[in-house]
Amino acid sequence: TYARKYAIPIDTLNFGFNVLKEERADEIEAGPQDGVYVDGLFVDGGRWNAEGHHLDESEPGVMQSAMPIVHMVPEQKPLEDLFRPKRQVNKFPTWTIPTCSWESWMFATLGTPRFG
User: Strands, DSSP E only, in 1-116?
Assistant: First the structure.
């Protein structure tokens, strides 16, 4: 719908990700103008550092920690820049696990700022 709304080629779109300060869906009053808010993501072997706004090492003994709400924002980029981020980012796969089977599917790769 973003490509149709702004009449741009769909193959020049990529997603940017903004991690919001809100931690629960009920803290969001309205949907975004563009993109989508995602709730229910977890970090495996790490945690989101809300003060520094970056991924950090997990707390001792904690294998998974919940992420705050993530805003997936469609962005138009030149084709040569589609797979080259302009800033230092951690890229990690995002998986979905259906409730009716043990399979899982990767649906996106999130890019978040690196610590250090």
Answer: 13-19, 36-38, 42-44, 46-49, 54-57, 64-66, 70-76, 89-96, 105-113
